[in-house]
Write a structure and sequence with these properties.
Elements: H1 3-34, H2 43-70, E1 78-79, E2 82-83, H3 103-118, H4 122-161
Antiparallel strand pairs: 1-2
Helix pairs in contact: 1-3, 1-4, 2-3, 3-4
Length: about 180
């Protein structure tokens, strides 16, 4: 690996980590502290739900980053069609990408929802919901177009058979005509 490419990987991971692992969780925490909500659920229930959402989210986040690096030979950081870390050279459709086209998005957003629930904050949940809607808009308007341009028919076929964000076992996914597959 050349020094310039290594530096771009480092920059991409530093930028991504500072936004998705520090700034966004801190923003949700600040909202939770600024606008405390009513005690809707007991602490043990909130903790259990947060763990059920957060742990798989963490696994998907780490697993998908590793898959992009080792299988796709690229990094995850691309912003509005601007390449920050090196782009993947191969379309990754195995590992977490077998279950969802955006396992990192699924993973980090599962963690954000887990934090908002753990903090018992309707404000943080509301901000997370708006954030998720913006992310879906970004994925559809920018990311999917770039992937179609870079990988063409291979990505189109992948897009037809794998859900965008929420990972569903293959048997439970609806067919293109709306019927469950067997």
């Amino acid at each position: 690996m050349k020094l310039k490419e290594l530096l771009r990987y480092i920059l991409g991971y530093l930028l991504g980590s500072s936004v998705f692992m520090v700034a966004i969780p801190y923003g949700l925490y600040a909202a939770a502290r600024a606008f405390p909500g009513p005690d809707l659920f007991s602490y043990p229930f909130r903790l259990a739900v947060a763990l059920l959402l957060g742990l798989p989210g963490l696994v998907f986040t780490i697993w998908s980053n590793a898959a992009l690096f080792f299988r796709g030979k690229g990094g995850p950081t691309d912003l509005f069609d601007m390449e920050i870390s090196p782009r993947t050279k191969r379309l990754v459709v195995t590992g977490p990408y077998k279950f969802t086209r955006n396992p990192m998005v699924f993973g980090v957003n599962s963690c954000y929802a887990a934090l908002a629930i753990y903090w018992n904050s309707l404000a943080a949940l509301g901000i997370w919901a708006v954030w998720l809607a913006l992310v879906v808009f970004y994925l559809k308007s920018t990311e999917e177009k770039r992937l179609l341009r870079d990988f063409g028919k291979e990505y189109e076929e992948y897009r037809q058979r794998v859900p965008m964000i929420i990972p569903w076992p293959e048997r439970c996914r609806p067919a293109r005509d709306g019927r469950p597959t067997d």
